[in-house]
Design a protein that fits this description.
Length: 190
């Protein structure tokens, strides 16, 4: 046990490289595409709208005849910028507005402390694994397959009212990967 060499982070992570189009190539020739979803607020919809959304979602599940993962990432809300903006406006206001603003700040601080306010990011993760194709044509085929799946998901989820974002550059992907692997550090900086 003592002679066992520790792996470096680069050896441990399964990521080979991030392509310019945002697709992640893993060391085992698997390709990953991450899609960000901004969901609608279902509770604010009428009964008729809810039924239409559910029917669109059923169609999404039937249409997507491939495997995918849904990842929900919770982020603790940082209200300090909002509170700072309210405090800056306090200087210019009269006494009544100052008092109401102070009560408002106290209220949101208590609410955040009691309920631990958070926002959520929603992602769909698509995967393509080499099925005995030649390496030369494989990367192009994998990218085409992942992009086809993305457009199918975008079409179906957009019908439900969701906003579907193609994360297609290296910087966006690096930020997301950093947040996945460094949750404590990332959440404390937000």
């Amino acid at each position: 046990m003592k002679n066992q060499k520790s792996k470096s982070v680069q050896e441990w992570l399964p990521i080979q490289k991030i392509l310019e189009n945002g697709i992640i190539q893993l060391k085992d020739t698997t390709y990953i595409k991450i899609i960000k979803i901004k969901p609608i607020n279902f509770n604010l919809k009428s009964e008729l709208e809810k039924e239409a959304i559910l029917n669109s979602y059923k169609l999404f599940l039937k249409t997507c005849n491939f495997n995918f993962q849904i990842l929900i990432q919770s982020n603790k809300e940082d209200l300090s910028k909002h509170i700072q903006a309210v405090n800056q406006n306090l200087i210019q206001e009269d006494k009544n507005i100052q008092e109401i603003s102070k009560q408002y700040i106290q209220y949101i601080q208590n609410l955040n402390h009691d309920k631990k306010s958070s926002s959520k990011n929603f992602y769909i993760i698509l995967k393509y694994k080499n099925e005995n194709r030649e390496i030369i044509e494989f990367e192009e085929y994998a990218i085409e397959d992942l992009n086809d799946k993305y457009f199918k998901i975008k079409d179906c989820l957009s019908r439900c009212g969701n906003i579907v974002t193609n994360l297609n550059n290296q910087r966006e992907i690096l930020i997301i990967l950093f947040s996945f692997f460094n949750t404590r550090i990332y959440f404390n900086q937000i």
